[in-house]
Amino acid sequence: MCILQLDRERTNIMDIRKTNLPDWSALIPVLPEAGTRAGALYDALRRLIETGGVPSGTKLPPTRDLMRRLKLSRAAAVAAYERLTAEGFTEARVGDGTYVAAAVPRMGEGQADMPKRALLPVRDRGPLALGVATPDPVTFAQFRKLLAQDLARPPLHLFNYGDPRGGVELRQAIADYLSTARGVRCSAEEIIVTAGTQQGLDLVLRAATSPGETVLVEDPCYPSALAAVRQAGGVAMGVPVDEHGMDPERIPAAGEAAKAVYITPSHQFPLGVTMTMRRRLALIERARASGAILIEDDYDSEFRYAGPPLAALQGMDDSGTVAYLGTFSKVLFPGLRTGYAVLPERIFERVIALRKTSDRQPPGLAERALARLISEGHFARHIKRARRRAEAARDHLVYELQAACGARIRLAPPEQGLHLVVRFATDDPQRATALEATCARETGLRPLSPMYLAGPRDYGLVLGFSGFAEEDFRKAAQALGRALDAYSP
Ligand SMILES: Cc1ncc(COP(=O)(O)O)c(C=O)c1O
After folding, report:
1. Over residues 210-231, mean pLDDT
2. Which of 193, 197, 271 to mutate for ligand 1's pocket (most ligand atoms within 8 Å of CB)?
3. Which residues surround ligand 1 with Cβ inside 6 Å?
4. 408 alpha carbon to ligand 1 midpoint, in Å?
5. How many Å apart are CA 481 and CA 439, to the nearest integer?
6. Above 90 in pLDDT, residue 118?
7. pLDDT, tens digit, for every residue of 157-194?
8. Where are the chain's structural domains?
9. Which end of the chain has fewer CB atoms within 10 angstroms, the N or the C?
10. Which CATH number fits domain 386-486: 3.30.720.120, 1.10.10.10, 3.90.1150.10, 3.40.710.10?
11. Considering the chain, what is the average pLDDT of its residues?
């Protein structure tokens, strides 16, 4: 802020201003409406004092002068000064004015004693990490326009408590999209808008199971799903996945009574395989018989590069066995924190009750813009662009990996999604274990085997290709090539 550049020897702010140094009005960043002006002035002055921008003993300008220069009401200026004085940042001297107090708390002081939770860092996710968005400038421009329209003329209901499922416009837009694009059988009434898959999963798990009960998961499994099962008190039991997806025939006897099954049938995470029709039907049949809820996580079906995607498993069931989870994290961006769940009737009330006692309802403001993004056709065009971009990124990564690692790796370019699995050209599990450990350590790329629960493990690396530049692909592939060179059994 400009006051920081001022001559520290001059302690009277009015003097400083008179020397044509920065205007006070430049110090008060936001004075939008009458009601918030005192707060904005208070914030700006407090920040100046805390950061040492205005030293102790400095005389603040008279409120009358501030009033004129900043076009404030006198009451607003007086209120800000009174609050600063009440909190010990300034001292009011009768008949003289207001001065910065002799001892004020400075920012940075005592940080060593701050609890760790105040300093939580944003995790550095490493090279070719998963879950990175590729921003689409056209979509952002459209989204901005729609948001601005809503902000300019906000409908009153956005300011109030509302439907715990979220606004009907977005739910209807999602229902229309899901029935045409994914073959999901649903109406807007059955949908809740969530803060992404993770919240949907948590709500469904807590509604469908009780702590201590068994939940079947794929083995290997999406780590955040496994964490959600455990967090909800469930006992996770892995069911092996092969090239045809999770195998219902291999559900352990102890898992027959499971209350819920978590699956990614369209594109198994992390292996990338698609569950066959026969296994889907078998799984639905078993769940019907046992009364379990199938939780279908359909996280990246928009990114299908070869042929039409297999329709969602939910659409094959007419017995209310499947809870279907979708997300905008992949197709738009994870920071949007918006997804949806299509709920079977038997857990509906319970999910709504849980929702009401946690975050009540989804935030409404971005919801309408998102609904219009979908219903006005922008989203469909966005998907086409995003898919083309992701396919090109996939091809690029595959090219770089083949160029840098050649026959030392095994690679099947995925026909769907935003990640791929690199395996090592060996059939010796011991050698594969060592290669995975060495390469993950040397390159920072993500190892596959820790995603297994119990079954015989496969070894390799899981690489994301969304949100990265060609240069990132080259660097990561070359680092892998060097790690493979350096590995000596
Ligand atoms: C298997 C799987 N499901 C769901 C998601 C999306 O989660 P969320 O919607 O909570 O961001 C991801 C994101 O990486 C994922 O890999």
Report:
1. 97
2. 197
3. 130-131, 196-198, 222, 264, 269, 297, 299, 327, 329, 334, 339
4. 31
5. 9
6. no
7. 888 899 999 999 999 999 999 999 999 999 999 999 99
8. 2-100, 137-380, 386-486
9. C
10. 3.90.1150.10
11. 87
| Distance, C-alpha 61 to centroid of its chain | 46
Task: List the alpha helices (DSSP H) in 182-221.
Answer: 197-208
Pocket test for ligand 1, best of 194, 222, 271, 420 (most atoms within 8 A of CB): 222
Could you give the angle at the alpha carbon of 338 between the alpha carbons of 333 and 342, nearest 5°? 130
Pair type for strands 214-219 and 235-242 = parallel
How crowded is the C-beta side of 191, counted as CA atoms within 13 Å?
Answer: 27
CA 130 to centroid of ligand 1, rounded, Å: 9
Q: What is the position in ligand 1's atom list of the atom closest to the CA of 334?
A: 11
Query: Token digits for 73?
Result: 């009401």
pLDDT tens-digit readout, 52-95: 777 888 888 888 887 777 777 888 888 888 888 887 888 888 88
pLDDT at 345 over 60: yes
Single out the residue of 315, 314, 325 nearest to residue 192, CA to CA: 325
In the reported structure, the alpha carbon of residue 316 is separated from the centroid of ligand 1 by a whole-number distance in angstroms of 23
CATH number of 2-100: 1.10.10.10
Q: What's the rounded Cα separation, in Å, for the pair 440 and 126?
A: 11
Q: Which CATH number does the domain 137-380 belong to among 3.40.640.10, 3.40.190.10, 3.40.1190.20, 3.20.20.70? A: 3.40.640.10
DSSP per-residue codes, 256-283: TT-SEEEE--SS-TTT-----HHHHHHH
- Residue 399 Cα to ligand 1 midpoint, Å, equals 26
Residue 335 CA to its chain's centroid (Å): 4
- pTM score above 0.85: no
CB 312 within 8 A of CB 267: no
